[in-house]
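Inverse folding, one chain.
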């Protein structure tokens, strides 16, 4: 079931609200983007939570755990901005996140069916700085948007 809770994240902060007007600060890692994955019962935030940790999850929006995420291309380079965006695709039952910076490396997109275990999506080609990702379930497409490119993925 969907939660009657709004969660907002930013650099170093998490806020929650039940009405969209009054907000309560929470202790958490913050992030760049947050989504609710209803079947998983998890809020999932993307960001830079230290090397190897680009995703944080919470069942409540209050208590958060960072998740281990792969480095781009399976290498040792860690994007300076961590992960820039995360989206839940209801039609595909999958979370997808994009690296905030992959300059000089293959474009980094990772996916997870549980929010905990993340896999690099390879063969997407190109390098870019990713800004956002969105799932358009009504047309069964996930689109990542970068500085100079938009890429349709997992369609």
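Residues assigned per position:
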């Amino acid at each position: 079931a969907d939660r009657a809770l709004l969660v907002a994240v930013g650099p170093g902060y998490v806020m929650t609200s039940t009405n969209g007007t009054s907000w309560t600060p929470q202790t958490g890692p913050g992030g760049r983007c947050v989504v609710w994955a209803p079947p998983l019962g998890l809020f999932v935030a993307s960001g830079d939570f230290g090397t190897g940790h680009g995703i944080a999850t919470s069942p409540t929006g209050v208590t958060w755990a960072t998740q281990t995420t792969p480095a781009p291309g399976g290498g040792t380079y860690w994007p300076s901005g961590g992960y820039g965006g995360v989206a839940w695709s209801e039609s595909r039952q999958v979370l997808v996140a994009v690296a905030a910076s992959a300059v000089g490396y293959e474009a980094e997109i990772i996916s997870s069916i549980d929010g905990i275990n993340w896999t690099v999506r390879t063969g997407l080609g190109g390098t870019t700085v990713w800004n956002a990702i969105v799932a358009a379930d009504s047309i069964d497409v996930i689109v990542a948007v970068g500085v100079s490119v938009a890429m349709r993925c997992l369609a």
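The chain has a mean pLDDT of 79. The radius of gyration is 15 Å.
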